Each structure stands twice: as structure tokens, then as C-alpha cells.
Amino acid sequence: MKLNQDISRFDAAWQAANGKLDPFALSLFEERRKLLSPQQVAQLDQPFRSKAYRAPVRAASRVVSWIAKSGPVDWGVQFSRNPSLGLLVIHAADGRLRARAVRVAPMEDTAALTALLLRRNDWAAKVRKAAFSRLEAVLPKLSQEELVPLCLFVLDRVARWERGGAVVAQMLAAYRDWPLVVKATFMETATGPLGGSLRQLLRSPDYDWALPDLALCAQSVFVRAVAVETLLTGHARWTEGSDWVWHDKVFNQRQKVPRREKRAVEVSSDTRAMVLRHAGQDKSAKLRSLAADYLITVGAPEGDGLVMSLTNDKAKSVQWRMTYYHKKWVGNLSAQES
Q1: Which of 75, 110, 154, 160 qualifies as a cystine partner to 149, CB 3.0-4.6 A?
Q2: Helix axes 285-298, 221-233, angle to 10 degrees
Q3: Which residues contact residue 125 at a Cβ distance below 8 angstroms, ignoring those fewer than 6 apart?
Q4: Domain boundaries, the chain
């Protein structure tokens, strides 16, 4: 979807000069809005506030006659006639309008719920308060399926917001099915900041129970890789800020490097063996490389079928690892070098 093109079309949905609506433009907005992802909805505030909802520039000599002609807009009437108008006005530049839109806009799809979350981080306190009250009323009615498309957006962005983000994250974490929502999100989603979000989630042991299923069945190779690495090594790792490393203080040469943290994860021997076998046969060379790394660390019984399979792997990254494995544990060259 071309978001910039849609925004230019949405501008016609509200003619702020006289308060009249263009029904066709509003219907187009409603049709296209439902297709926006949470990340795209989050991009609407700035262009809408700079382009839409503003009266056209008029010559100073015509301002008085223009105001007398147009008159004030009765937003109560407009919202009652067009409920979906609230989902357009919720991005308006006027904080009072945003607060009114939060109270009346229908919350029936992912894009609308995303807009409500955005208003919980609004700079205007009255808008944040209205959004919080609306969330309290809407959240208990949502199903697990309705929350899954929002989950990654909440984990990746909402929890880091300075105004109200932590409160929203706590509200959702207290939702009865939230752990299942999180697991379903990482199982079913194929795109997005999945690997980094999962690592941040594993800072606490709350979701360790989901790691075996994620390692075996997640759609995203990045999710499977993080889960497999965690289960095979027995440690969850994540990035905790960054540090400066000096190379030469005289010439002010330094480099920013990420600061890594980790914690131990309890993994049974049966679970580790199952994950190892599955990773060694995964369609992604990244996971087969992780299996080879684990074999390099712990070795394998003589005649193990997984060793033979990885030794004859088509991926160069796996072949190089197994060459080192044979030199370390067998003491001769791998089949690839003979």
C-alpha cells in the first residue's frame, strides 16, 4: 500500500473550511484505513496534522466574510451522522477534537485499536485520560484473534513510550489470554522486528515455556533461530544499551558496541536433544549452523546420523563448521575435504 498517496486522498474526507463532508472521500478513507498495519497507522499523525483538518489560507480582506459564511462546525452532529469520521479526527491537530474522537470512534478493527493506543501516548493529558478510559472499556471485550495483530506493535513500541506506554503494556499483560496472544504472534508472524522483540521478551522467564514450540514451528526463521540458540546454549541473550570502546584517545577514535546481557534458562536433556535434531534438519542454513555450533561444543557419539547429515550439507557455512568439528573431535578431515 502506498501510504503517502492514501494520505493525499484522505485530505478530502474533511473540508474544514465549511464543515461539510465529502461522502466519497470518507468512504474511501474507511475502506483503505482498515488495510493499514499498526506501523502505518502510527505514521498518520504527522502528515494529517500538517495537511488535513486545516482551513484554507484566505486573504486578510476576506477572513471576516468567510467566518460569517462558514460558521462553527457541530461535531456532535457530524459524529452521529458519520461514526467512522471519529477515526479520521482522532489524528487531528486540535487536542479537544482528538479527545472527542477517542470517545466516539468505533473500535472494531486493528487500525482503530492502534489509533487508540497512539492517543494513550498523546501529549495532551485530556486525550490520554480519554484513551485510558476507552481502553478499560474496550479491552475486556477483545478476543485473542483481535489482539494478535497488535501484539508486536505493543512489544516493540508501546512499552517504550514515555507517556502512558508502560501502563498500556501492564493493562495488556494482565489480560487473561495475553501469554497465548504473545505466543501466537511469534508463531504466526513472518515479518517485522521479531528476533529482537523475542530477545527482549526473554529478559524474564515468563515465556520460557513457549520456546520449544517456537523453535520447532515458528513461521519466522529469526524466531526459530533465537529459540533454538536459547535452548541449545541454555542462556537467553539480549542487548542492554551500548558502550564506547576506545581505540586511540589521542586521535579520538572510538566505536560504539552493543552491551550484551544474559540469564540462564533451564532446559531438559530430552528437549535439547529434540531441538538439536530438528534444527539440524531445518530448511534454513542459519538453524543448521546453530546445530553444528552445538556439536562443536559438546561433540556427538560415533556414527551419529546428524553429524553425517551436517557434514554433507550444501551450505558453506555449515560445511566450514563441520570441518572444524571433525578436526576437534575426530582428528581427521571431514568428508568435504577428503
Answers
A1: 110
A2: 10
A3: none
A4: 1-51+76-140
pLDDT in tens, 54-103: 433 333 333 333 333 444 667 787 788 777 888 888 888 888 889 999 99
pTM for the full model? Answer: 0.79
CB atoms within 10 A of CB 336: 15
3-state secondary structure the chain: CCHHHHHHHHHHHEECCCCEECHHHHHHHHHHHCCCCHHHHCCCHHHHHHHCCCCCCCCHHHHHHHHHHHCCCCHHHHHHHCHHHHHHHCCCCCHHHHHHHHHHCCCCCHHHHHHHHHHHCCCCHHHHHHHHHHHHHHHHHCCHHHHHHHHHHHHHCHHHCCCCHHHHHHHHHCCCCHHHHHHHHHHHCCCCCHHHHHHHHCCCHHHHHHHHHHHHHCCCHHHHHHHHHHHHHCEEEEEEEEEEEEEECCCCEEEEEEEEEEEECCCCHHHHHHHHHHHHCCCCHHHHHHHHHHHHHHCCCCCCHHHHHHHCCCCHHHHHHHHHHHHHHHCCCCCCCC
Instruction: For cell 481502553, name the residue.
Output: 135
User: What is the spatial distance between Cα 7 and Cα 276, in angstroms, rounded to a whole number?
Assistant: 49
* Grid cell in block for residue 223: 524466531
Report how far residue 332's alpha carbon sits from residue 338's, in angstroms, rounded to the nearest whole number.
9
